[in-house]
Amino acid sequence: EPEVTQTPSHQVTQMGQEVILRCVPISNHLYFYWYRQILGQKVEFLVSFYNNEISEKSEIFDDQFSVERPDGSNFTLKIRSTKLEDSAMYFCARSPGLAYTDTQYFGPGTRLTVL
Amino acid sequence: QKEVEQNSGPLSVPEGAIASLNCTYSDRVSQSFFWYRQYSGKSPELIMSIYSNGDKEDGRFTAQLNKASQYVSLLIRDSQPSDSATYLCAVPQGGGNKLTFGTGTQLKVEL
Asked: Residue A102 gets which letter from DSSP?
């Protein structure tokens, strides 16, 4: 299974602060996704990203969130002005393509705790 | 809103038994289905994928798909304590293949 890393593994922040979560996917995967999982709940899609553009986003992904690939390798999710309800595991996933057979591989996740 | 439904469990089986995990989905045009395993506090790990009606076997795991009934299942033979985890059913939707997950079924394999 292709590797992807996410940093930090755990982020603790105060409500209202900005956080940046990072994902480093392998270079030949073109499609990236962010998902989150609130404790005890299902994994939820946030946003998909292709060719340096957002290709799809969910209702959760409001103006508080942004994604970018600042240096062509790292893939970041920024959460501005964090809220208590943003506490969750955030997973980066990547896929080699958009064929219905293409698998999404998940990174280890970042646990975000908003106090 | 496309739905993916799973029984949350817990499903308890004795070691060595067959565990049967079920999933139903609402989107009739779905073409592919994925089973992920998730240990507590960890990320989803791909177990199996299935695209065609019928059975697909990989080691101790068998995925079964019935598109007419909109039903996909995962069988785990010779269950081991290390199989104790939450099993997530996921269905790609939309042109971007965003995954819609079920709530997951917690499996407990008892000694």
From this structure: P
